[in-house]
UniProtKB/TrEMBL annotation:
<dbReference type="GO" id="GO:0004497">
    <property type="term" value="F:monooxygenase activity"/>
</dbReference>
<dbReference type="GO" id="GO:0016705">
    <property type="term" value="F:oxidoreductase activity, acting on paired donors, with incorporation or reduction of molecular oxygen"/>
</dbReference>
<dbReference type="InterPro" id="IPR036396">
    <property type="entry name" value="Cyt_P450_sf"/>
</dbReference>
<comment type="similarity">
    <text>Belongs to the cytochrome P450 family.</text>
</comment>
<dbReference type="InterPro" id="IPR001128">
    <property type="entry name" value="Cyt_P450"/>
</dbReference>
<dbReference type="InterPro" id="IPR017972">
    <property type="entry name" value="Cyt_P450_CS"/>
</dbReference>
<keyword id="KW-0812">Transmembrane</keyword>
<keyword id="KW-0408">Iron</keyword>
<keyword id="KW-0479">Metal-binding</keyword>
<keyword id="KW-0472">Membrane</keyword>
<dbReference type="GO" id="GO:0005506">
    <property type="term" value="F:iron ion binding"/>
</dbReference>
<dbReference type="GO" id="GO:0020037">
    <property type="term" value="F:heme binding"/>
</dbReference>
<dbReference type="InterPro" id="IPR002401">
    <property type="entry name" value="Cyt_P450_E_grp-I"/>
</dbReference>
<feature type="binding site" description="axial binding residue">
    <location>
        <position position="1024"/>
    </location>
    <ligand>
        <name>heme</name>
    </ligand>
</feature>
<keyword id="KW-0349">Heme</keyword>
<protein>
    <recommendedName>
        <fullName>Cytochrome P450</fullName>
    </recommendedName>
</protein>
<feature type="region of interest" description="Disordered">
    <location>
        <begin position="40"/>
        <end position="60"/>
    </location>
</feature>
Amino acid sequence: MELSPSSSFASLWQSPLFLLLLASVIVLVPLFYLLTSPEKKPPPSCGDDGDGRQTLPLPPSPPGAVPFLGHLPLLGPLPHRKLRSLAASHGAVMLLRLGGAAPTVVASSPAAAREAMRTRDAAFASRAPVRMAQRLIYGRDMVFAPYGEYWRQARRVAVLHLLSPNRVASFRLLREREVAALLAGVRLAAGAVVNLSNALMSYANGVISRAAFGDGGHGLDGETLRRLFADFEQLLGTMTLGEFVPWLVWVDKLMGLDAKAARTAAVMDGLLERVIAEHRERRRRGETVGDGDHRDFVDVMLDVSEEEERAGGEDVQFDTVAIKAIVLDMIAAATDTTFTTLEWAMAELINHPSTMRKLQHDIRAAVGGAGTQVTEDHLGELHFLRAVVKETLRLHAPVPLLVPRETTEDTQLLGYRVPARTRVVINAWAIGRDAAAWGDDAEEFLPERWLDGDGGGGEAVEYAAQIGQDFRFVPFGAGRRGCPGAGFAAPSVELALAGLLYHFDWELPPAPAGGTARVDMSELYGLSVRLKAELNLVAKPWSSNMELSSLAPLLHSPLLLAALVLVFSWRLIVPSTKRRPPPPCGDGSRQLPLPPSPPGELPFLGHLTILGSLPHRKLRSLAAAHGPVMLLRFGRVPTVVASSAAAAQEVMRTRDTAFASRPRVRAAERLIYGRDMVFAPSGEFWRQARRVAVLHLLSPNRVASFRLVREREVAALLDAVRRRAGIGVSSVNLSELLMSFANGVISRAAFGGDGGYRLEKAKELFADFEEILGTVTVGEFVPWLAWVDKLKGLDAKAAGTAAAMDGLLERVIADHRERRRRGETVGDGELDHRDSVDVMLDVSEEEERAGGEDVQFDSVAIKAVILDMFAAGTSTTFTTTEWVMAELINHPPVMHKLQGEIRAAVAATAIAGTPVTEDHLGKLHFLRTAIKETLRLHAPAPLLLPRETTEDTELLGYRVPARTRVLVNAWAIGRDTATWGDTAEEFVPERWLDGGGAESTAEYAQQLGNDFRFVPFGAGRRGCPGVGFAAPSVELALANLLYHFDWELSPPATRLDMGELFGLAVRLKADLNLAMRTRGLAFASRASVRMVERLIYAHRVIVLHLLNPCRIVSFRRETRGRRTLLDLVRRGVTGNDAMISMSNLLMSRMPMASSRVPIQQCRRQRGVINSCSATTPRRPARMQVVNIAWAIGRDAAAWGESSEEFSPSNVSTAAGEVVEYTVQIWQDFRFVPFGAGFATPSVELVLAGLLCHFHWELALAMVKRRRRGLTWLGLRCRCMYDDSA
């Protein structure tokens, strides 16, 4: 009979000889270790030359280490608590020896955590091998992978593809469905005891499994799947003895851990194999989920794998094993984190009933009456909910001893030496309860500590903003090894918690006799630390009628009605009660009054109702009656309005620091993440963001680098005008075209080329973004009327626009990062054409490499700063250009004068390419004065952006308390007759010229901050840094529109309506529809040539893309063709054959144009505009005109008697100099051979080479051979130099 392994093992245990041998080993081996352990040498110094002069000590080590086992027996069932008590005795950094494995350093303070996860993050960035993780997760995952290339690539995939904000948002419907299932399960047991722990575990499993695998059980029922996940997480959190004492690994086998791990790994592997096979089969059938984007993790990883396979590079390949490992990472990290955080939060709330009631009140007030479902749209308003979750994470970190790290080199930690390959454990649980960091109430549950303000109703900071900045709070780690999935877990936790507290009132079951009605907070250690006992609670469904029914008698009470009438009557009759004298401002020697306040203030609403649809005009009329400084109350917000140059100078220069902050703008917070520069309050983040904008995004060099972008967009604008104009005089909606131009310039400067982002189709998105950002919401000034904004659909529209814009920006940033990873980043050379996203990514990477404590520009900050550019740049460019054209139309003499200046400047220089380029702008002084005069009369943001005082200050002798909103009426200041004279309301560009007719100031920037009569862009710390970016775009567009076209009103109108429409910027109320007449293009069309139409493309593409001067210079190094020509001549090839071969080779090496426009469009754009007269006879439209350049070049009337002779002196000046081809062609119409910019450098260089290297003469006889109708000339040559020369 064959003996099974299990029976033989049992018989071995029953053998007396085996038991005697085992006892001898256990006794003799430790004794031998104690007797023969050699004395250790002192440790070498960390980072010195080896002479011991700077030797750092090892961290202190607690006593009680046991041979072979080290400090393992000291840890007990709750290691985080024991390690905290040891740290209290031995310091924040300790050295422990856990068995025979590598030494372990434990960090238990914020300072130690900061040094390990930020200051010396690279040295602490690896992972120690974890035996159970290798058994369960293939050794190919991200969480437990050692520091190296595979880990970097895996983390990149996780951050950019699996856990990006866009991907997390795509799972919204999944989360809401799982919350609905959770609530339905609780509702079935309502009134009875609910095992909330089981319900929360099922919820967490449902969210994670569906996010990872999609819908479907994949061969396992829900309960089996739940048990599989539970076994997987239990094993992964088990500390195996063999990991620390390798020769005792047989104990783990004896306990059945290895067998259980093998079984669980096999079942999990089978599940994953089925899931991946099903996904691949579905994709093969063409049923792949589109990039809409609701793909699960497996779909995303398959996309990444296929993309890596197509790229075929040498990077890490994500095969099936890697996909399974990373998906298991998501399951292991997210399931327990979500479950335990929810469980601990509910337990803490049950033990703190007043906190739970406050949170329920906040949720129910935000969501509304019963029957309404809590959605993710509500979460942004639930600041106290976020504070509760954070306080729970502080006290109950899901993984109290973060996943262990391993040092990659000898380093130090708080002055102690940490050798390479030392295991490092960070006790997040102890750090979250450190009294030195959190105060005496560190052990108490106080969510209010996370709110700004004095414990009031402030806002809790985002989790991502807290992590990596505040090392008192490290539940998810930080630095390179920080958990990238905090953003994934947060909405799952918040939505479930909000749903449970909104729909139910919770309480403990009745306590047994002698018991206490309190949740037992004992812990159970594992992969994460959870409650030791399951959380059993009683849930009672809540209805809003329960609260309203108790108020019903009061609502029908005559006493309440009378009280309300008295309150309103009192406020109307006595609008302001007598106030106590204000405190002194400044030195206390005098008490300053508050600014005067206009009458008409209503209860609760204040002066909001008197502003009307054009607030800047109403405020100007109020200032005429009450003075240049007024105090108004918009709802509950006190607002000071400054309406004179003197007041603006005091706000923006004299007391700039006191007026340098921004108030909270609700629409901006919804759309721009609360992390931008324009709307940021004064502080360190704003200073760093402005520094980046001034030095990197909007510097003169950066603005100059976008020249090609501007010229291309201007060319597109002109083409659009011509297409819409057609033949003859027609009406053009110039407003629509100018908006497209502004969007094109800003979007391409921000994102680069279109890049597949469909920017043309995003115009509506940009328009919605600017409209919402410029909308004044009632709830911002009267919070209890915020429901009006919801009723009007503003909140829903803002949420939809924000999500769409965020998705676009995520794609843009991901594409840029991928391009940079492939090494395609545009260099920072002399011609630096990086877009704004590239620049911000450079800044972000530079900050990350520096590793300092400055503000970090992560993806959210990058998106916010880019959105700032859209908000500030698009409307400013569009409205300024629109208003200039409107004023010029109403003032024809000014327009004709300006057109004369532009056309004279172009005729004087005549640079090939686009007729008006940025090279001309410096000479167009009157153009600049017209723009300045327009900005004076029509400031893009007439009330500028609101400021907020940071302290008590004063303004023109009036007291302005701290946290007062301040508006500067730039529109009123620009029209103030006291400073601009009697013509303040008139459009007079000449006022900006000095006596000699030249412009008084060379640049807009010189005017701003020096002349406070002119503040269209503000000044001081909060002045707009983007003036230099907008100016060339406006100037170039206007110069080209006025150069190419003559403009007038469409009949029968005689004057343009200058009515205004208020928004983010004030624009014309009606679109600018103008009649245009194309100038100077009567002979500019081409007759139809059928074959040419099929072969050739648009002239605009040739000039702007192929034949611009920069492109021609870029071909300079293409010398292969010229070298080939010389070689052919040396080998005796005839001159004609050699030149043809060289020309073909040279042209074949030139890159093709990136975009093509059919010649049909070109012909429509450049059609004959109208009939015209040339010299004497009249030429009707569409008549073909031929210029014989050969005859003109030999015209004796133009060239003299030697016109038929070859005489280079004919094209030389008196001084013997030869004028440039391009200048000659544009100025001298006796010389019209071609457009010479591309061909002439090639011709000159080849000719110079041929004449330099060879002597030329005719062959003995002229060789004339007929080849396809052509005459070939035979020449012979002899070398002037040998080959070496």
